Amino acid sequence: MRDRLVILGAGGHGRALIELLRDLPGHEVVGLVDARPPAAPVLGVPVLGDESALPGLLAAGCRQACIAIGDNAARLAAGARLEAMGFLLPALCHPSAILARSAEVGPGAVLLPRVVLGALARVGRLAILNTGAIAEHDTVVGEGAHVGPGAVLAGGVRVGARALVGAGAACRPYVGIGEAAVVGVGAAVVAEVPPGQSVGGVPARALR
């Protein structure tokens, strides 16, 4: 029996999740909801309206949801709303992802194609590891964080809640990236990044 699932968000990340779920057996996407719902289906998936459609879906037996919102804080807030309604937020891992047996992935987290998680790596609730991202041994990716395509977190890196690590960035072993910090595209992080700080460049330095 396939699990019926609704996607919250009909933009680019929603399209990525549709493709992920089509490669992942055991799930049936019943539709999308969005604050500004497009009129046309998205990749053939019907758009069911805005969040006011969710209670009816839950009553009809659709008990699982995934959050396709790129903004980290907004994604966490949406997850809290859906959980309060009674939805379950399954972790979604593309079949091409490589996960060490000791790695842990929290509720609502999304691992897109070719992600690699090393030994004892931990991915928090509603975090995103985008296509080709690598989180090596003992790395911790916090709640609602986003690790961009092709980014590399060496062993023991700590990414705080709601932080963003841009596409192609690289972090040296055991460095810390604070809550809600932003690491720019292609940056090389060799020193601690304070909470809320934006950094970029090689080596990464604070941005104004």
UniProtKB/TrEMBL annotation:
It comes from the Bacteria. Residues 4-76 form the PglD N-terminal domain. Signal peptide: none annotated. Pfam families: Hexapep, PglD_N. SUPFAM superfamilies: Trimeric LpxA-like enzymes. Transmembrane segments: none annotated. PANTHER family: ACETYLTRANSFERASE, UDP-N-ACETYLBACILLOSAMINE N-ACETYLTRANSFERASE. Belongs to the transferase hexapeptide repeat family. This is NeuD/PglB/VioB family sugar acetyltransferase. It comes from Paeniroseomonas aquatica. The lineage of its organism: Bacteria, Pseudomonadati, Pseudomonadota, Alphaproteobacteria, Acetobacterales.
